[in-house]
């Protein structure tokens, strides 16, 4: 057999094999439509909250300052515990003030004796002067001595009262009931009066105050909205929420107490204070927290999940499902965010159904198998 004949036979076998394989190959099945989660556009009233950073204070935060100088003899409370009004907190060495009181009492006794003598002398001089047994000069001198003794009595009694007050200041008592902090002094420390000399601080935590600042622009916008007739923001200040540093929402609802009388010219902001009940004493002074205040109300707003929106260079689009289960990309206008959703201002209706997307296989014109899910803004979808 020649080489040429062998080559022809080989080509024939290869061609026959390829034809046989192609005849045996099965037709590939058509791809099934993608199963995509679909949500319906929600229409509801929305109360939009603005977030402000604030700091907490007690209902009353009273600093305890010494009113006399001396050595701390004892601490009569448990640091970080509850104290009651009038409870003894500190004692300052009373010996110098007791000695001063004794001295003043002795001086008062001397003045009282002198008063008794000058009064007796004057009372004797009066009838003698009428009989001309003594001169008018002697009578005037006796009266002057009596008047001087009377004035000395008043001064001595004032000194006695002051000495008693100073001795009383050696016992430092709680001016209010509340939670006391860590002592700034210890037994044996020397203290003296003054604004910078602080022994401790007591906070009344029955209610707490939270102070936060709001920009002048935001303040003006809210003020104008509230003063409108039939404004939806009327009463919004009576329902203020507090978000703690761990992200949890404080269970008690607060209300705005007041706003400062002026805009701070250095920051362009106004200070506002809100009050919250604190029955469990969870809130302590000095905490940083976020205040959530309703600053806008949208009636019959259209809401869609944020993750259903495709945003590219400031253009927002969503996949809208039609009655034939086909999706088409549609451009929309979004407003403020509300929890994990967007408020849609243009491009959708309350009857539209939105495909969640999340896959590169989904394109405009695709036929899908919709998986309808219920959702509530701010909650996990079912």
TrEMBL record:
Q: Which domain of life is it from?
A: Bacteria
State the Gene Ontology terms under molecular function: transmembrane transporter activity
The subcellular location is:
Cell envelope
Gene3D superfamilies of this UniProt entry?
Answer: 2.40.30.170, 2.40.420.20, 2.40.50.100, Helix hairpin bin
Which Pfam family, any one of them, does this sequence belong to? Answer: BSH_RND
Q: For the Multidrug resistance protein MdtA-like C-terminal permuted SH3 domain, which residue ranges apply?
A: 300-358
Major site of localization recorded for this protein: other
* Residues in Multidrug resistance protein MdtA-like beta-barrel domain copies: 208-294
Record-annotated membrane-spanning stretches: none
Family assignment from sequence similarity:
Belongs to the membrane fusion protein (MFP) (TC 8.A.1) family.
Q: Name it.
A: Efflux RND transporter periplasmic adaptor subunit
């Amino acid at each position: 057999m020649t080489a040429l004949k062998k080559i022809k036979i080989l080509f024939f076998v290869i061609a026959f094999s390829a034809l046989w394989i192609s005849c045996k190959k099965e037709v590939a099945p058509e791809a099934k439509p993608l199963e995509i989660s679909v949500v319906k556009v929600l229409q509801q009233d929305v109360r939009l909250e603005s977030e402000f950073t604030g700091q907490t204070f007690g209902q009353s935060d009273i600093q305890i300052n010494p009113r006399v100088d001396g050595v701390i003899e004892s601490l009569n409370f448990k640091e970080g515990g509850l104290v009651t009004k009038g409870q003894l907190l500190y004692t300052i060495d009373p010996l110098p003030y007791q000695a001063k009181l004794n001295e003043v009492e002795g001086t008062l006794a001397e003045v009282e004796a002198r008063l008794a003598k000058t009064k007796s002398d004057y009372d004797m001089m009066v009838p003698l002067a009428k009989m001309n047994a003594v001169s008018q000069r002697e009578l005037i001198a006796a009266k002057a001595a009596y008047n001087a003794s009377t004035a000395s009595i008043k001064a001595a009694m004032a000194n006695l009262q002051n000495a008693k007050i100073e001795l009383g200041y050696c016992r430092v008592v709680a001016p209010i009931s509340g939670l006391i902090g860590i002592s700034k002094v210890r037994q044996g420390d020397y203290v003296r009066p003054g604004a910078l000399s602080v022994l401790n601080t007591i906070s009344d935590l029955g209610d707490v105050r939270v102070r936060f600042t709001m920009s002048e622009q935001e303040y003006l916008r809210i003020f104008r909205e509230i003063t409108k007739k039939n404004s939806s923001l009327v009463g919004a200040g009576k329902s203020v929420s507090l978000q703690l540093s761990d992200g949890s929402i404080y269970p008690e609802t607060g209300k705005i107490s007041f706003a400062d009388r002026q805009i701070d010219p250095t920051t362009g902001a106004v200070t506002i204070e809100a009050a919250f009940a604190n029955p469990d004493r969870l809130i302590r002074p000095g905490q940083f927290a976020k205040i959530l205040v309703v600053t806008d109300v949208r009636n019959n707003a259209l809401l869609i999940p944020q993750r259903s929106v495709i945003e590219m260079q400031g253009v927002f689009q969503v996949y809208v499902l039609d009655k034939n289960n086909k999706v088409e990309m549609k451009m929309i206008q979004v407003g403020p965010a509300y929890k994990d959703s967007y408020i849609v201002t243009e491009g959708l209706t309350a009857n539209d159904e939105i495909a969640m997307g999340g896959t590169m296989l989904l394109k405009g014109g695709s036929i899908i198998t919709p998986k309808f899910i219920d959702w509530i803004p701010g909650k996990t979808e079912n």
